[in-house]
Write a sequence for this structure.
């Protein structure tokens, strides 16, 4: 296949072809500077009306990690306990309170999200878009991500996010991959199975 992409083959490999979901990490720490660099890159990903509902809650160690582990599915608990950094990725259902800053071209933006159910749906959908950007940003920082949906979201929200408008969507282990951190790569669908003309 010819390379019709502007991105260098090395960058393509780093972000996509060679990147994998990691299940084990070294004990090398993930620094605040790395996390800041990831966010500073991925914050430019588009969301509807620029609502930017993703919130990233970092869980390093100690009591907060123990509280998080209680809500993880059994198969995810051990690797989450061992990861150097865990990020709980959540949707802020009160994102509309910041629309005067993030979408100033529409003075009535906040009122457009007055309905609680519609606002939560918008928050979840757009935060999920941002999660995709975030995972690519982790890879761009030379780190590996282990995203997991296997946790009790309602219990986690009640425990870690009580009194806030945050709704957890994904838990991601982050760090430098350990040896044998990967499962075998599973098949991907081919272009002609996915892409077609209308």
């Amino acid at each position: 296949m010819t390379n019709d992409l502007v991105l260098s083959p090395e960058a393509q490999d780093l972000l996509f072809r060679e990147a994998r979901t990691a299940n084990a990490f070294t004990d090398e720490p993930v620094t605040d500077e790395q996390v800041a660099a990831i966010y500073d890159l991925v914050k430019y990903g588009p969301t509807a009306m620029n609502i930017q509902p993703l919130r990233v809650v970092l869980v390093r160690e100690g009591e907060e990690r123990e509280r998080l582990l209680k809500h993880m599915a059994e198969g995810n608990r051990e690797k989450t306990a061992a990861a150097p950094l865990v990020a709980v990725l959540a949707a802020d259902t009160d994102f509309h309170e910041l629309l005067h800053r993030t979408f100033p071209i529409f003075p009535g933006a906040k009122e457009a999200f007055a309905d609680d159910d519609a606002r939560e749906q918008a928050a979840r959908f757009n935060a999920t878009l941002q999660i995709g950007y975030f995972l690519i940003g982790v890879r761009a920082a030379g780190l590996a991500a282990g995203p997991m949906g296997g946790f009790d979201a309602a219990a986690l929200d009640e425990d870690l996010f009580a009194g806030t408008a945050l709704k957890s969507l994904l838990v991601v282990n982050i760090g430098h991959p350990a040896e044998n951190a990967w499962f075998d790569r599973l098949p991907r669908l081919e272009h002609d199975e996915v892409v077609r003309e209308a």
Remarks:
- The longest helix spans residues 116-140.
- Residues 43-179 form a domain with the NADH Oxidase fold (CATH 3.40.109.10).
- Strands lie at 54-59, 85-92, 144-148, 166-175.
- Residues 99 and 133 are 21 Å apart (CA to CA).
